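forwarding from the other thread:

> can someone predict this with flavin-adenine dinucleotide?

sure thing
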Amino acid sequence: MTINTVKQSLSGWGRYPQVAAQVARPDRYVELVGLAQQAAIARGHGRAYGDAAISASGTTVLMTRLNRFLAFDAESGLLTAEAGVSLDEILQVVMAQGWFLPVTPGTRYVTLGGAVAADVHGKNHHHVGSFSAFVREIELFTPQGVLRCSADLYPSVFWATVGGMGMTGIIGEVTLQLKRIPSAEMQVQHRPAANLAEAFALMESAELDDEYTVAWIDCLASGKNLGRSVFMRGHHAEGALSSGPKAAKLKMPFDLPGFALNRYTVRAFNAGYYRWEGRKQQAFRCDLAPFFYPLDGIQQWNRLYGKKGFVQYQFVLPPETAAKGLEAVLTRLSLSGNASFLAVLKRFGAAGSGLLSFPMPGYTLALDLPLRHDTLALLDTLDAVVLDHGGRVYLAKDARLAASSLPRMYPQLDAWRELRSQLDPEGLFVSALGRRLEMC
Ligand SMILES: Cc1cc2nc3c(=O)[nH]c(=O)nc-3n(C[C@H](O)[C@H](O)[C@H](O)COP(=O)(O)OP(=O)(O)OC[C@H]3O[C@@H](n4cnc5c(N)ncnc54)[C@H](O)[C@@H]3O)c2cc1C
């Protein structure tokens, strides 16, 4: 079967780096068999920030036309769909019937395949773990053939694929256990934290814990305000069900000029956000979308950072070193003046079994930085802090980590490599990220 490809320049959500790619867009499931026999890498909605969803030297396979629902049991909440179905498309079908995603990232515009390949986490990781905890089965297209696997069936393949960033093959189908919800609304409460110590106290407080928790940190605050944050907690409220979230009406119409985001404009935004959101100390109700997906409210918001793009930096630190390590990172960021909108701090619970899954017990911080002449050098210094404190960087957000840092961050890398080379002895499934990090 001939598979048509077109040449295209591709990037991740951060628009850095831009890579020349050969792109195929199958619309028949059976085409995956042929695509898995050649150098390829699957791509969902391209919401990974860096170069993860671009083939190093072969075909990048756009999965978004393989978006058929195959089965849904409204009694049990078990859903089977092709891997190109987006989380948004799922919500449009299941929410009115009282079901929601058991784990959701901060955007609903990611595919099922992308969610499995990155083993994504949400604001409830400290209670329920990551996406893979709810994946009952996947169908995987490898150069060796097609394989159905799960935590019980070929578990070693399953745990190498979950978090394996597309480099064990193409995930064609996913069966996911959804979560019951009583309504389409959330019961939410905010608390301001004047500094990092207060933010940690709020995140650790058993009394304030909730189904979902998160803190937005002002990365430009310094001195006694270092780590100034708004802590947010929420759970699904009782009430009426309704259909899935509405598409955003706002759209970023053009690339903002590079100078528009600077330490002064971002400092003013962050200070205003802290005051405004920190005031909401009385519990209030809101729709699911603004609570889970605030950034989905503006289409193409990544154009805010201008044509040069931006990088997202997300790392996790173990509980024993998190406070010291975060203080060191925030101090460096604040001194650099590199403007980041409020960054997101989440708490992680127990790690899952994915060999390269990002979450481990502790705290994770995610922040966006515009690409300036000194941004990449600044991030190298942050890598050193993260390594010194026993942490790791999230591959789904990465565009620039050095290969030498990877084995120290991901101790199961060799086990993953071993398994991968059995599935793909000729090294066909290598992404630009995989090549840069010398993973395969
Ligand atoms: C605004 C925003 C908020 C985010 N918030 C979070 C968050 O809270 N938590 C979190 O964990 N992540 C978060 N992310 C990251 C995002 O969830 C992941 O990068 C996810 O993998 C993107 O899915 P995608 O469908 O866009 O995949 P892509 O970006 O296209 O691909 C990501 C990886 O998945 C692989 N892949 C995609 N489809 C398949 C397939 N069918 N078979 C095999 N491999 C495949 C690709 O090869 C690549 O390695 C966020 C991203 C954005 C832009």
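The chain has two domains: 69-181, 185-399. thats all i got for now
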